[in-house]
Specification:
The complex is a heterodimer. Chain A is an alpha+beta fold. Chain A folds into three domains: 21-118; 124-181 and 484-541, Double Stranded RNA Binding Domain (2-Layer Sandwich); 210-459, no CATH class. Chain A has helices at residues 21-33, 36-50, 52-55, 63-72, 76-82, 92-121, 146-159, 182-208, 411-415, 463-482, 528-541; strands at residues 136-142, 163-168, 174-180, 210-217, 224-225, 233-236, 248-259, 265-276, 282-286, 292-294, 297-313, 319-323, 327-328, 335-341, 358-366, 386-394, 419-421, 428-431, 435-437, 443-459, 486-494, 513-521. In chain A, a hairpin with a 5-residue loop joins β19 and β20 (443-459). In chain A, α2 (36-50) runs antiparallel to α6 (92-121) and α8 (182-208) runs antiparallel to α10 (463-482). The radius of gyration of chain A is 38 Å and the shape is elongated. By secondary structure, chain B is mainly alpha-helical. Chain B has a domain at 166-326. Helices cover 68% and strands 0% of the residues of chain B. Chain B has ten helices and no strands. In chain B, α6 (173-206) packs antiparallel against α8 (223-257). The radius of gyration of chain B is 21 Å and the shape is globular. Classes of the chains: A alpha+beta, B mainly alpha. The structure holds protoporphyrin IX containing FE.
Chain lengths: 544, 326
């Protein structure tokens, strides 16, 4: 690991103005912020700050659970709300930690980058005076002139991919300096810059992305086009206008689902007709884990279920047909839903809607009803489809401004008595194709069902770049963790002159060149002594 | 097959226990390991020239000396037997995993129970590899096998799940890539906590502490050896975990759920673990931070890993369907 706390001093303050406390304070704070200790503290704060988001329900993850939490802890919840406890990762305190961390990161890596570029362009430094005091050292004698030997040693080091520099000193003494492992720092910088890229991409993705959800019922009469009004709910990034949405239309032409005998789903496959930019329709298939990728939007299959087709014939013989998606409440697709008919029983003579004669049907749909008449499905495919409905007559309350769910009747209307149960306490069972005649002679016919798919439509413009950044970061990380920076020096001098190298004479047969070698691992590198020994061995044998 | 898998796992746990007892025997009766003794000879401080490698001064730098002439003693023999049992246990463990995979006709990591089996297998296999390559660290075996037995026991007590097929959401090749890399990374992190803890104990012992946990340090390898082993394991696991949890995971999440990152509890805790381990690597690379402090960070990382393995699955409800306990 390189020494990290020795950053180059920040550019000295302009002509010293000792009175300028503010400047000094700023400079000191900046130094503090970019120190490794601060970075460590910030990293920890970030880890700790992330914890509450897994403990409390998060609005961005599951808004319904937040509502439940409000009901369960009515006193605590508003406080949590004020502290951002339901939106931890969008809260100012979470953002301030990571923004500080990334500021620290920039302050740390930019000087390192400059340093590194400088060291990449400089030759390895000259040999220290006393090579024998280095952690690794050796001496040997080789035949030949110092200049030649130095060149040959340098050649060998270059072949081992060391950056090498040969210097001629005084008295015919030559030194060879070599350094290797620059990739470690390169990789490390690469990694940290990749982190910055990732953060920037996430930010831009948030600004320029959008997403929406929609239930798409099968059939060519049930398609939709990509406009906000067509969605059950949608979220646009702050920089996206509704008119920016790409132009495409989807129709679900087929939905296949297969199941294990236990009822666990095995495969899903949605087939759709797509038109993009008013072009020709094309047939595309997609499934879970394999979304439909369009220009500027991706369509993900999140789930599926059934939409019963119900035909109501009113007391004037006028009939209306509705296809109403029921929402599954368990893995066997027991589904709940409601069919509302506000515009029925209109007397053709007056052509006036009678708000006491609106009809609503609420109940469950069981794709495979049990024989014992339990109100839960026993299998998710339609083996024995059955609809259990309760009929209500009266004012559905749809004209009042309060928004309601399209999957249940307005409870307030039932409580107030404006909407009355007209079919008794037990829900009425209906098989496919059956007709139910109500107390007033009007009829409800269960014509069949259509499959529907729950779709999430999303676009995140920076996703691809993000992936590139992440992979680049990983490569940098591996280089950084696997690399070792080290330096090797050789000092070469004629064997005849006797410097203060205390070798016994026997080890120095006359003539030739005396070579001293020294090695210094600049990062924690247990294998260095082996590498050094091997280098010295080849150097000694002169094969280099 | 599923039955066979359960029996193999039971046999594996028993064999780990036997190995553990043998390791304990060696630990109690054996000579002090040679590395242990070598540690008492501090190597003279090295003179560093220029911007040299910093050696933090809170640990005694030692070198492993070449083994002194070996005198076979009973402790040594028991230790070898322990390793033998350990090999058998790992094979049984592998058998348990493979038969489980065959029974389910897929990779054996489709639910929390299997995930823990696979992770502990990696931990165990890596540990065995270390022992075989460097017998000097064998004295850690007691602690390594203890950790494994506890985790396997916990897995079968609180997380056992009968063999079942995968839901469509898990049917993707990312299932193999994402989960396997996380399992390998996690397994190595888990086993890395053993030398980390022992380093702290040994270091305390070397500094003259003689209270309970430190007394365990008497017979374990030298502090510097343990510290380096800790770092190597963590440095190896970190990129794997990064790839599995922070690259492959988001790629799959994008294809499956439509967003690459959504702060699902599992994602939150993977993020926390990652941050903590990054903190460890930074702390270790910073000369002014003591190695003991850095190692404590690694142990905090271990706690977050346990949270990932058990806690998240038991306490929180998220999108990771395999996270649902039994
Ligand atoms: C978002 C937060 C950060 C993360 C996740 C992160 C992650 C990492 C990782 C995983 C390494 C390991 C590579 C290695 O040990 O060689 C590393 C190294 C390093 N990081 Fe960071 N980092 C972050 C922020 C910072 C900051 C703010 C600084 C500066 C204050 C910094 C300075 C360094 C340095 C100097 C190294 C090199 C250590 C060495 O010499 O090996 N990092 N970083």
């Amino acid at each position: 690991m390189t020494v990290v706390e020795q950053r180059p001093a920040p550019p000295a303050a302009p002509p010293p103005r000792p009175t300028n406390r503010v400047w000094a304070l700023l400079r000191n704070s900046w130094r503090q912020l970019t120190s490794m200790r601060t970075a460590l503290v910030l990293l920890f704060l970030l880890a700790i700050a992330a914890i509450p988001g897994s403990v409390f329900p998060q609005r961005g993850v599951n808004a319904e659970r937040v509502t439940q939490y409000y009901q369960a802890h009515p006193e605590l919840a508003p406080w949590l709300e004020r502290l951002g406890g339901f939106e931890v990762y969008a809260s100012p305190w979470f953002a301030s930690i990571y923004l500080l961390l990334f500021t620290s990161l920039i302050g740390c890596v930019v000087p390192r980058l400059i340093d590194h570029v400088r060291s990449l362009r400089q030759a390895p430094p000259d040999a220290p005076k006393r090579l024998r005091r280095l952690p690794q050292n050796a001496d040997f004698v080789r035949p030949g002139e110092p200049a030649e030997v130095a060149k040959s040693l340098a050649g060998g080091l270059r072949r081992s991919r060391f950056r090498t520099r040969v210097r001629e000193g005084e008295d015919g003494v030559w030194t060879v300096s070599a350094e290797k492992g620059y990739l470690k720092e390169t990789g490390n910088l690469f990694f940290h810059f990749a982190l910055l890229t990732v953060l920037v991409c996430v930010g831009f993705g948030h600004w320029y992305g959008w997403h929406a959800n929609r239930i798409l019922v099968g059939g060519s009469d049930q398609g939709f086009c990509n406009t906000l009004t067509q969605y059950d709910d949608s979220t646009l990034g702050p920089r996206v206008q509704p008119s920016d949405l790409p132009n495409f239309c989807l129709k679900l032409s087929d939905f296949e689902a297969t199941f294990q005998s236990t009822g666990q789903p095995k495969t899903f496959l949605a087939t759709v007709q797509v038109t993009q930019d008013n072009g020709p329709a094309e047939t595309r298939k997609f499934t879970v884990n394999d979304p439909l990728r369009l220009d500027g939007a991706n369509v993900y299959l999140l789930g599926h279920s059934y939409a019963p087709i119900l035909k109501y014939t009113d007391r004037f013989g006028v009939s209306q047909t509705k296809i109403v998606p029921f929402l599954p409440v368990d893995g066997m697709q027991t589904s709940e839903g409601v069919a509302q008919f506000p515009d029925v029983n209109i007397d053709p003579k007056t052509n006036k809607r009678d708000s006491t004669l609106q009809m609503g049907f609420e109940g469950v749909y069981l794709p495979t009803a049990a024989k014992d008449g339990r109100a839960t499905s026993t299998f998710p495919a339609e083996n024995n489809p059955m609809l259990y409905l309760t009929a209500y007559r009266g004012d559905l309350g749809l004209d009042v401004g309060t928004p309601g769910s399209v999957y249940s009747l307005k409870q307030a209307q039932i409580h107030s008595g404006d909407l009355k149960n007209v079919s008794g306490a037990r829900p009425h069972p209906l098989k496919m194709g059956e007709t139910w005649t109500l107390d007033d002679g009007t009829k409800l016919e269960f014509l069949g069902t259509r499959p529907y798919a729950t779709l999430s439509i999303r676009y995140d413009p920076t996703q691809g770049l993000l992936l590139v950044g992440a992979i680049a970061g990983l490569i940098g990380l591996m280089l950084s963790l696997a690399g070792h920076r080290r330096r090797v020096w050789f000092r070469v001098r004629p064997n005849a002159d006797r410097p203060n190298v205390d070798l016994p004479d026997s080890a120095r047969p006359g003539g030739g060149t005396l070579v001293e070698a020294g090695g210094l691992p600049r990062t924690d590198y247990p294998g260095f002594s082996d590498e050094f020994k091997a280098l010295v061995k080849t150097a000694e044998e002169g094969t280099s | 097959m599923a039955e066979l898998s359960n029996q193999l796992m039971a046999a594996a746990v028993l064999t780990y226990l036997v190995a553990m007892v043998c390791y304990a025997g060696e630990y109690a009766f054996g000579r002090r390991s040679r590395v242990g003794r070598a540690a008492l000879r501090p190597v003279e401080a090295k003179l560093l020239v220029g911007a040299g490698a910093p050696v933090p001064d809170d640990i005694v730098v030692t070198e492993e000396s070449s083994p002194p002439p070996v005198r076979r003693d009973r402790g040594e023999l028991v230790g070898k037997i322990a390793v033998g049992f350990n090999v058998i246990a790992v094979l049984l463990h592998l058998g348990g995993l493979v038969t489980r995979g065959i029974a389910a006709d897929r990779m054996p990591w489709g639910n929390m129970y299997e995930y823990i089996l696979a992770t502990t297998f990696i931990a165990s296999a890596v540990w065995l590899g270390i022992v075989l390559a460097r017998p000097a660290v064998r004295h850690l075996g007691l602690f390594a096998s203890l950790a494994l037995v506890v985790m396997l026991g916990a897995a079968s007590l609180i997380a056992y799940t009968p063999v079942g097929p995968l839901v469509p959401a898990l049917k993707s090749y990312w299932f193999i890539i994402h989960v396997s890399t996380i399992i390998i990374g996690t397994g190595i992190f888990l086993i890395g906590a053993v030398p980390a803890a022992m380093f702290l104990i040994r270091n305390g012992y070397d500094q003259g502490k003689r209270r309970f946990p430190y007394t365990l340090g008497k017979r374990v390898p030298a502090a510097a050896t343990l510290e380096r082993l800790t770092f190597r394991l963590h440095a190896f696991a970190f990129p794997l975990f990064t790839f599995g949890a922070l690259i492959a995971g988001p790629i799959w999440a994008e294809a499956s759920w439509g967003r690459y990152w959504g702060w699902d509890p599992k994602e939150v805790w993977a993020f926390i673990s990652w941050i903590v381990y990054a903190g460890y690597l930074h702390a270790r690379a910073t000369p002014s931070v003591k190695r003991t402090v850095a190692t404590w960070i690694a142990l905090i990382g271990f706690v977050t890993m346990l949270m990932n393995l058990f806690g998240v699955n038991l306490f929180f409800e998220g999108l990771h369907s395999y996270a649902n306990a039994g």
